[in-house]
Write a structure and sequence with these properties.
Layout lengths: L10 H29 L8 E2 L6 E2 L4 H12 L1 H16 L5 H17 L1 H21 L2 H15 L2 H7 L3 H14 L1
Antiparallel strand pairs: 1-2
Helix pairs in contact: 2-8, 3-4, 4-5, 5-6
Length: 178
Amino acid sequence: MKGKEKEMYSVPEILISSILYLSLTSWCCYLVFLSSLEKEDMLSFDLHPSWWFGRKMDDSDYEWRYWADYYTSNILFYLGHMLMGLIFNLYLEKGRIYTNIVYSLASLTYLLGLKQLTFLICNVCVVYLCVLLTRRKAVVWAASLLLLALLNMQGTSSFIVSRPLCQDFNACLSQFLN
């Protein structure tokens, strides 16, 4: 045989696996739903209406609110990654790597900001050079820990936290710690 041929899975195997997975997942979700209905009276705090099918939720956890707002406001970028990956896997395999890099850099620039993305890329390059030059685990760990310690220094932390979203999270974190 010339070249590599893709292994094809049989349609009945995929269909049976998908049906089994969906039915077991649905059953588990239904059991959790029934259990939450039974225990709803035991809660001692007020629940607020949520976005999900009229269910109630506790929004007293600041971290949950932060990450839920963050992901719901940026869901289009995640969907874009999934759709682009699917389209390029099916139709244009050769351009997949370059388009993923360009899309990732564009979405990270929007989400993090240019300064933060540059800082992140520089950290990754330093660790990569440590791996490339030394090939020793201890040196890579030391470089990674030094870069992590660099995040807590006054100059770099004020440099990194210039986006309003990060400032809100740090304000919530400082309220939680005090």
